[in-house]
Predict the 3D structure of the following.
Amino acid sequence: VVEEIENEIIKRLDILINEIDSKAYIDNPFNILEHMNSVLNEDIEFYGHLFSLKDGYPFTQKIVDYFKLRVKESFIKQFPKVKVQDWVANIILDYSVTGMISVYHQWFNSDQRKSLDEISQVISLMAANGINCIITEQNQ
């Protein structure tokens, strides 16, 4: 059953990642986060349960690792001329993806006073400013 759930989530991640326009994400990360929120809202109870599992770490880590790999592939494909050192790209992805997952984890395990959209606005501002700064510096 767990493997079926993992496969379903990975399939949904593939759809989400294939729709990512990396340029648009860098300019305005909120668009992709808004799309991700719509996926979460489709089955908010399931994802809430998933994020609340204390023993769910291996499961969520598998999803995080897969998401980072696919986002990196998508970025390289859409920006073949942008040169970011691999170790820097890995730091960006680790920070961005695990940070985002951590924020969602905290939201699901809180009293949820703020909406997912409000949370995503903050995440998108942090992501846009940080990623743009690093890409600019790496390509000077």
